């Protein structure tokens, strides 16, 4: 019997490994795993969800069980994947079209559900993810601010700098000079 688990806070490839290892330790065969989702096979009629939830919570994850929470988690995973894990430029990229197409749901519905449950808009979530990626790229010091702006789909360096300052209170150049960079884990961004 296969069961699909929707898992909150699975935001990186290390998360996939941890979840896979923990589910395997519990005796489940993981037939497919990706950010935010795992499909397990079980010889039992139904898996021990309480046990799975306990292990996931111990590792900083959680099970998502209601329809809106699952939708929100899928939205977050798609955004995180696009910003943090894909190497193509986001020039002229429309997140609203992308999310609507990927989830086969009207964007206004996605936006409404996300805002009502998360307390912020999808757009604000995207901005926070982009700024976290900017911090990462500034820390690596491999790209200029202009190259970072192009990579993340900003219309100009000024636009990137303004958003960066709004979110962090610092300008990108000053942030780059800091010895201790103030980056947040992706699962702790709201």
Q: Please tell me how large the radius of gyration is.
A: 18 Å
- Give the tally of β-strands: 4
Strand order of the largest sheet: 2-3-1-4
End-to-end gap: 35 Å
In the predicted model, the low-confidence regions spanning at least 5 consecutive residues are none
Residues in helices, as a percent range = 55-70%
Mean pLDDT comes to: 90
Tell me the strand percentage band. Answer: 5-15%
Shape: globular
Characterize the biggest β-sheet. 4 strands, antiparallel
Helix vs. strand class: alpha+beta
SSE ordering = EHEEHEHHHHHHH
Compute the number of helices: 9
How would you characterize this protein structure?
Helices cover 56% and strands 11% of the residues. With 190 residues, it is α+β, with helices and mostly antiparallel strands. Strand 2 and strand 3 form a beta hairpin. Helix 3 (67-85) crosses helix 4 and helix 3 crosses helix 5. The chain is globular. The two termini are 35 Å apart.
List the helices and strands and how they pair.
Layout: E1 2-8, H1 13-25, E2 29-34, E3 37-41, H2 49-58, E4 62-64, H3 67-85, H4 95-103, H5 107-118, H6 122-140, H7 145-151, H8 157-168, H9 172-177
Antiparallel strand pairs: 1-3, 1-4, 2-3
Helix pairs in contact: 3-4, 3-5, 3-6, 6-8
């Amino acid at each position: 019997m296969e069961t699909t688990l929707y898992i909150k806070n699975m935001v990186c490839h290390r998360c996939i490994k941890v979840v896979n290892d923990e589910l395997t330790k519990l005796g489940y065969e993981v037939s497919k795993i990706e950010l935010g989702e795992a499909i397990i096979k079980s010889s039992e009629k139904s898996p021990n969800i309480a046990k799975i939830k306990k292990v996931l919570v111990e590792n900083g994850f959680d099970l998502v069980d209601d329809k809106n929470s699952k939708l929100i988690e899928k939205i977050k995973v798609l955004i995180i994947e696009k910003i943090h894990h894909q190497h193509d430029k986001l020039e002229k990229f429309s997140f609203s079209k992308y999310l609507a197409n990927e989830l086969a749901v009207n964007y206004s519905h996605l936006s409404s559900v996300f805002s009502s449950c998360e307390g912020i808009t999808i757009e604000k979530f995207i901005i926070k993810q982009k700024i976290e990626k900017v911090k990462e790229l500034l820390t690596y010091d491999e790209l200029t601010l202009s190259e970072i702006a192009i990579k993340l789909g900003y219309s100009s360096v000024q636009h990137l700098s303004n958003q960066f300052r709004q979110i962090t209170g610092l300008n990108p150049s000053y942030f780059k000079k800091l010895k201790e960079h103030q980056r947040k884990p992706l699962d702790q961004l709201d």
